[in-house]
Amino acid sequence: MNPKAEAETSGIATGAAARHVSLNERLIFEQSAPGKRGMDLPPLDVPAVDPAAVLGREFMREAVEGFPEVSEIEVLRHFTRLSTWNYAIDLGMYPLGSCTMKYNPRVNEHVARLDGLVNEHPLQPGELAQGCLRILHDLEQSLVAITGMDAATLEPAAGAHGEMTGLLMIRACLESRGNPRKKVLIPDSAHGTNPASAVMAGYEVQNIPSNTRGHVDKDRLRQAVTEDVAALMLTNPNTLGIFEDHVAEIAGILHERGALLYMDGANMNAFAGIARPGDFGVDVMHLNLHKTFSTPHGGGGPGSGPVLVKKILEPFLPVPVVVRKEGGRFVLEHNRPQSIGRVRAYCGNFGVLLRALAYILAYGPGIRQATEDAVLNANYIRKHLEGHFDLPYDLPTLHEVVFSDARQKPQGINTMDIAKRLIDYGFHPYTTAFPLIVPGALMIEPTESESKQECDRFIQAMRAIAAETETNPELVKTAPHSTRIGRLDEVTAARKPILRWKP
Ligand SMILES: *Cc1c(COP(=O)(O)O)cnc(C)c1O
């Protein structure tokens, strides 16, 4: 066997592929050798019994075929190495627009690991869970104060889940007035989850075009709001990072005809601590705790998408509702005849809710400054990349900025190529090709977590790539060059994923 082939079969990558991460880690199954163990148990000091006799044969499993036999250090190294393959917010800037990939402060983790909290059981009787119920209640009250709404549910496990919960409450409310109505209006700049949630709640979706300023077109809206319309789902600021400055008027147009205003609050990092949706006519909204309130995004979860409502929707909140009784005792109230029912087990993702409350209490009024810094960082980046990338909507932006690849297009380079090249400069890519109303979008959201120095490094990298598209377009088109694996065939990866290990 030649040395290169030998190195590869032994799991050591060679050449350029080895630069980013030095080891081409094999599956744990492939590292197995018969008889290796992680630990030795001491000899039994009680009489041995036949497990089949005690448990019953039906509960016994045959030998697990191909179960990996590895030592403790092999397990540890395997997972430690795998962890270095991930790009993470703890490693560097994560400018993924619309996702608010901010730092997860360690105080959150400290609080979440306190003995009295990690050892609680979700089914513990109320009188033994007063502390946990108070945490839920305090978080609800904090979110109510920040948003200017009247009441909250913490059950939904993601933003999209919150959207569906909110829409089901709208449906229940309108139904109680005699007619659930048929349609939900959604601007063309909305997040893809909005139309999906509306359909799941049994509504037809009608698109509302944006005007040239990236705002909802009020005249079109006025025409569209008929007796059939249940609600408008408005993302504010929208996915261009632009605030709907006529939002109170929009709410008025809906309310006049008995429709409700749903606000997608995933972008609250743009104005938390500065303005309150409850003050400008919003009836129901969700927040993404894994965005604005610094809880981890995780590998697709667990997230949390609390829904906040005005008084008119309060009777329809999911059960159970945390209620504070006289004397300060907390109870979980299940008997709510108009409730839409449960949307999640227990009271939502408690560990995530806890981290969000830790963040809010640690920052206090400082939440306003976090917002201001997030907006400042986005505008700083915008100013320094103007002239290098096309800016399709030239309006003041808040916490994120959307460029397009129009200037790079003539060299045959698109937003995906630029994003892939950014990996070679040590950054996670920004959001590509979203929002859909900007063809070839580059959506950048630095968040308040980044220092000026880190923003400057990002700007330098982006400018360098813009220069490369002129001088060496091939380099950009074929990026990334520094990773274990180069450009993936994304279509094949999506259509024919290999998800199972076969011995
Ligand atoms: C992230 C996001 C959502 C969906 O939230 P999930 O927690 O991912 O389900 C909805 N709307 C907007 C504007 C978002 O940015």
Textual characterization of the structure:
The chain is of the alpha/beta class and 503 residues long. The protein folds into three domains: 23-83, no CATH class; 132-365, Aspartate Aminotransferase, domain 2 (3-Layer(aba) Sandwich); 368-495, Aspartate Aminotransferase, domain 1. The protein is built from 16 helices and twelve strands. The protein has helices at 3-9, 51-55, 72-83, 106-112, 115-118, 130-147, 159-176, 193-200, 218-224, 247-256, 350-363, 367-385, 415-424, 452-471, 473-477, 490-495; strands at 151-153, 183-187, 204-208, 229-235, 260-264, 284-286, 307-309, 321-324, 330-333, 401-404, 431-432, 441-444. The protein has a seven-stranded mixed beta sheet with strand order 1-7-6-5-4-2-3, with helices on both faces. A three-stranded antiparallel beta sheet has the order 10-12-11, covered by helices on one side. Helix 4 crosses helix 11 (350-363) and helix 6 (130-147) crosses helix 11 (350-363). The protein starts with a helix and ends in an 8-residue tail after the last helix. Pyridoxal-5'-phosphate (PLP) is lined by residues 98, 158-160, 191, 193, 235, 239, 264, 266-267, 288, 303, 305.
